C-alpha cells in the first residue's frame, strides 16, 4: 500500500529498526525492490532522483506509484535529493508520498527558508518531507573537532533547523559519502555526533551514502572486466550501530548498481551470441533483489510489515 514516508519512518525510529530507501531507475530495479519487500514482509521506500525521473520519465513514475499502491507491504515513493521547489512540485503532481529538499550546500538561513517553503507545499497535500543539514564527506577519525564541525551536522543546529522548518525527517552528515569510494579501509563514522543529534532531534534520522560496497561484488565486477579503483563502503556494524542511535532511513544505490552491472557483464561475457535482453537483465534483476533482501535483514526491517 502507498503510504507517506513519515508513516513508515516514525514507527521505525520508535521501534529501533531501519528502513531501506533504494534508488530505482527502471522497471527491473522497481520489480527487484518491491519483490524483495514483499518476500521479506518489510516496509520500503522507492527513491527516485531527479536523474531517475529524467531518465525514466512518466513511465517510471507511473509504474512506481501504481505498483506501490498494489504492494502488500507499506511503500513510500520518494523524491531523492530534490534540488528545487519546482522539482518537488513535479514529484507531488506525479503522486509521490515523500519528498526530499536538499539545500545542504546553501548557507543555514537559505536552507531553512527553502526547506520551510517545500514543507508548506508538501504538507498541504499530505506528503512528508526530508531535509538535509551538513556536508556528506568522508573524514578521518583523528581530524580536529572544529574541522569536523565545519562539514558534519551540528547537533544544536539540527534541533533549531527542525523546529524552524517543520521537516519530518532529517538527513545527517556523520562521515558517509555517495558512491563507491567512501574512504580507505573502514570509513570513520561519527557515532558520538549522531548520538548527540538524536538526543536533540526526535524525528527519524536519515543516512545517505550508506552502501556497503561489498568486496565480493567489487571482485565480481572486476572479474567480469569492469574497472574500479580502491572501492570502500560503510561497514555493516556501523550501519547497525547508527540504527540503534536513531537512524531510521538508510539510502542504498551504489550496491544495487554494482550488482546489476556485474551480472550483466557476466551474462554477456559468458554468451557473446546472446542478444535477448531478458537473458541478461533477468539475472541482473535477481541479483539486485538479493542485495535488497540482505540489506533489509541488516536494517532489521524484515517482518515489520
Ligand atoms: O545520491 C544520489 C543517488 O545515488 C542517485 O544518483 O542522481 O545519479 O540518480 P543519481
Ligand atoms: P550510496 O552511493 O552509498 O548507495 O548512497 C545512495 C544515496 O545516498 C542516495 O541518496
Ligand atoms: Na533521499
Ligand atoms: Zn543521497
UniProtKB/TrEMBL annotation:
Keywords: Lyase, Metal-binding, Zinc. This is Fructose-1,6-bisphosphate aldolase. Zn(2+) 2 binds at residues 102, 132. It is an enzyme of class 4 (lyase). NCBIfam families: cbbA, fruc_bis_ald. Coiled coil: none annotated. The keyword Metal-binding applies. It comes from the Bacteria. One of its GO terms (molecular function) is fructose-bisphosphate aldolase activity. CDD domains: TBP_aldolase_IIB. The active site is at 80 (proton donor). InterPro entries: Aldolase_TIM (IPR013785), Class_II_FBP_aldolase (IPR050246), FBA_II (IPR000771), Fruc_bis_ald_class-2 (IPR011289). One of its GO terms (biological process) is fructose 1,6-bisphosphate metabolic process.
Amino acid at each position: 500500500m502507498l503510504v507517506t514516508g513519515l508513516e513508515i519512518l516514525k514507527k521505525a525510529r520508535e521501534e529501533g529498526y531501519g528502513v531501506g530507501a533504494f534508488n530505482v531507475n527502471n522497471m527491473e530495479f522497481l520489480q527487484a525492490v518491491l519483490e524483495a519487500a514483499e518476500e521479506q514482509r518489510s516496509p520500503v521506500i522507492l527513491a527516485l532522483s531527479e536523474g531517475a525521473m529524467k531518465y525514466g520519465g512518466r513511465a517510471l513514475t507511473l509504474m512506481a506509484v501504481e505498483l506501490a499502491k498494489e504492494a502488500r507491504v507499506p511503500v513510500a515513493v520518494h523524491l531523492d535529493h530534490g534540488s528545487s521547489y519546482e522539482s518537488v512540485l513535479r514529484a507531488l503532481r506525479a503522486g509521490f508520498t515523500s519528498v526530499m529538499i536538499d539545500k545542504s550546500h546553501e548557507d543555514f538561513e537559505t536552507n531553512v527558508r527553502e526547506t520551510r517553503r517545500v514543507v508548506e507545499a508538501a504538507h498541504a497535500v499530505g506528503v512528508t518531507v526530508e531535509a538535509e543539514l551538513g556536508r556528506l564527506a568522508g573524514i578521518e577519525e583523528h581530524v580536529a573537532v572544529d574541522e569536523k564541525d565545519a562539514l558534519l551536522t551540528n547537533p544544536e543546529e539540527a534541533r533549531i533547523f527542525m523546529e524552524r522548518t517543520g521537516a519530518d525527517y532529517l538527513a545527517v552528515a556523520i562521515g558517509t559519502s555517495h558512491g563507491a569510494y567512501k574512504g580507505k579501509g573502514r570509513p570513520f563514522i561519527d557515532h558520538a555526533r549522531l548520538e548527540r543529534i538524536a538526543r536533540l532531534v526526535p524525528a527519524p534520522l536519515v543516512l545517505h551514502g550508506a552502501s556497503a560496497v561489498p568486496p565480493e561484488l567489487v571482485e565480481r565486477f572486476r572479474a567480469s572486466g569492469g574497472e574500479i579503483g580502491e572501492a570502500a563502503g560503510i561497514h555493516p556494524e556501523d550501519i547497525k550501530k547508527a540504527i540503534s542511535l536513531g537512524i531510521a532511513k538508510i539510502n542504498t544505490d551504489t550496491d544495487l548498481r554494482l550488482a546489476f552491472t556485474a551480472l550483466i557483464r557476466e551474462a554477456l561475457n559468458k554468451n557473446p551470441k546472446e542478444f535477448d535482453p531478458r537473458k541478461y537483465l533477468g539475472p541482473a534483476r535477481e541479483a539486485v533483489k538479493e542485495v535488497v533482501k540482505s540489506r533489509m535483514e541488516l536494517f532489521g526491517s524484515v517482518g515489520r510489515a
